[in-house]
Amino acid sequence: FNTVLIHGLVRDSQGRKMSKSLGNGIDPLEVIDKYGADALSMDENSGKAPGNNTRFSSERVENSRNFANKVWNASRFIMMNIEKAADISGVTEKDLTLADKWILSKVNALTKDVTENLDKYELGIALQKVYDFIWEEFCDWYIEMVKPRLYNDEDKTKAAALWTLKTVLINALKLLHPYMPFITEEIFCNVQNEEESIMISKWPEYKDEWNFEEDEKAVELIKEAVRGIRNTRTGMNVPPSRKAKVF
């Protein structure tokens, strides 16, 4: 090996060293059987800094399993909509909406950041960025934003939404792959047929043409407004079902 990265000691949940005399050892096969290999793999890389000891926590592994479910469900939703749609290969930049450009710009910046972190062996930092992007930006914001376009066959921007969903998903899967190899390979091989396997696919690269700075700022402003409205509604006990005018 040219480079060896030595991680810290994995201790039990109380911070004690695992030993036979204490009987506090964790059998990884049992953890994998309960939560999956990807969940354990992700947990062992999350929040880790080279040389620092870490505590094993079954709650954290469970959170990783929940994240895997989130990725799986989002991917299934995207694939179902792509299967029902016409050809999306002819989408160009002029077809993209504000939201499409925003998420492309976000995954573009993420690619640059994660690549730099991995080059410096900052595995935990890189993973946290991929996790935050997939869970919050992609699933909680973008997918929710494009649902009205997907459900309306008359919408002229439907193809652009599907192309963006597929493109961003593929790039996000590649960035997540070093941490969750099994689920990413399974989804990757089903969502596209240009590359044989995610393991030998091309690593994402930063593209200048995907740097939509103005569009990114505009959507961030919209998100800020939405958060503000939600907080005000919650603070004033306005039920979610009740429509409200916003000025």
Can you put this structure into words, describing what you see?
The N and C termini lie far apart (62 Å). The longest helix has 28 residues, at 123-150. It contains eight helices and two strands; from the N terminus they run E-H-H-E-H-H-H-H-H-H. It is globular, with a radius of gyration of 21 Å. Strands 1-2 form a two-stranded parallel ribbon. It is mainly α and 247 residues long. The chain has helices at residues 28-35, 37-45, 58-84, 98-119, 123-150, 158-176, 181-191, 213-235, and strands spanning 10-11, 54-55.
Q: What is the overall number of helices?
A: 8
The percent range for helix content is 55-70%
Which runs of at least 5 residues are low in confidence (pLDDT < 50)?
none
| Major sheet size, sense and barrel closure | 2 strands, parallel
Query: CA-to-CA gap between the ends?
Result: 62 Å
Order of neighbouring strands in the sheet with most strands = 1-2
Mean pLDDT: 92
Structural class: mainly alpha
Give, in order, the helices and strands.
EHHEHHHHHH
For the secondary structure, the number of strands is: 2
Dominant shape: globular
Q: How large, in whole angstroms, is the Cα Rg?
A: 21 Å
* Strand percentage: under 5%
Oligomer state of the chains in this structure: single chain
